């Protein structure tokens, strides 16, 4: 029931019919409804438990701390992410703030606030416009081939894939082929130096 309810919500999210905040609001009521239960208090309790468990497990990769402190002196550093941009505990903004990422960037744009989702070019263009940066002057680093690499490239940006998966790197062609593949953010400064 959980999987079916959430898949339905995610399908509507991807179609632009709802926001991530709506997905959050409906995930448990829709699940319980599929089980023949109408229990708003239980839905609220389940959501609180899910968020508490999820947020408690959110951690930064250790290599985030290896990025040079002067990176923001040389580049505009921003985050473009799919998700909610509100004060809920499981919103992308809250997660970025709690992990210290928000303090390390110049800009932050979540899909709910943008009204567009990755891999669509619109969210990338909006972030670039707000930062005053042309697409051909930008580099996007991401770990999702479709949302990050294909999305950034279709928006006219150079892309870097960070491949943290234990599986071998896939063979990437066309829009899926980034300018560079790295396994750790420690490799990023050397690549930036070549640009």
Secondary structure topology:
Elements: H1 2-14, H2 20-34, H3 40-56, H4 71-74, E1 78-81, H5 92-98, E2 107-110, H6 111-114, H7 121-131, E3 139-142, H8 145-154, E4 158-162, E5 180-182, H9 188-193
Parallel strand pairs: 1-2, 3-4, 4-5
- Beta content comes to 5-15%
Helix percent reads: 40-55%
> Biggest β-sheet: count, sense, barrel?
3 strands, parallel
Q: Oligomer, anyone?
A: single chain
Using only CA atoms, what is the Rg?
Answer: 18 Å
> Could you give the order of the helices and strands?
HHHHEHEHHEHEEH
Broad structural category: mainly alpha
Beginning-to-end CA distance, first to last residue:
49 Å
Q: Report the strand count.
A: 5
Number of helices: 9
Strand order of the largest sheet: 3-4-5
What is the averaged pLDDT score?
A: 93
Shape: globular
Return residue spans where pLDDT drops below 50 for at least 5 consecutive residues. Answer: none
Q: How would you characterize this protein structure?
A:
By secondary structure, the protein is mainly alpha-helical. Helix content is 45%, strand content 10%. It has helices spanning 2-14, 20-34, 40-56, 71-74, 92-98, 111-114, 121-131, 145-154, 188-193; strands spanning 78-81, 107-110, 139-142, 158-162, 180-182. The strands form 2 sheets. Strands 3-4-5 form a 3-stranded parallel β-sheet, covered by helices on one side. Strands 1-2 form a two-stranded parallel ribbon. β3 (139-142), α8 (145-154) and β4 form a beta-alpha-beta unit. α2 (20-34) packs across α3. The longest helix is centred in the first third of the chain and has 17 residues, at 40-56. The mean pLDDT is 93.
């Amino acid at each position: 029931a959980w999987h079916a309810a959430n898949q339905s919500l995610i399908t509507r999210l991807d179609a632009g019919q709802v926001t991530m905040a709506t997905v959050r609001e409906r995930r448990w009521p829709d699940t319980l409804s599929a089980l023949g239960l109408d229990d708003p208090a239980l839905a609220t309790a389940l959501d609180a438990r899910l968020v508490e468990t999820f947020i408690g497990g959110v951690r930064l990769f250790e290599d985030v701390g290896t990025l040079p402190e002067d990176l923001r002196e040389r580049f505009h550093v921003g985050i473009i992410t799919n998700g909610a941009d509100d004060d809920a505990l499981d919103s992308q903004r809250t997660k970025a703030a709690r992990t210290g990422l928000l303090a390390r960037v110049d800009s932050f744009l979540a899909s709910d606030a943008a009204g567009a989702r990755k891999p669509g070019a619109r969210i990338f263009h909006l972030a670039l416009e707000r930062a005053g940066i042309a697409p051909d002057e930008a580099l996007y680093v991401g770990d999702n081939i479709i949302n990050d690499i294909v999305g950034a490239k279709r928006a006219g940006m150079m892309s870097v894939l960070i491949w943290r998966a234990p599986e071998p790197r896939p063979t990437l062609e066309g829009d899926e082929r980034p300018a560079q593949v790295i396994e750790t953010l420690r490799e990023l400064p050397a690549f930036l130096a070549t640009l």
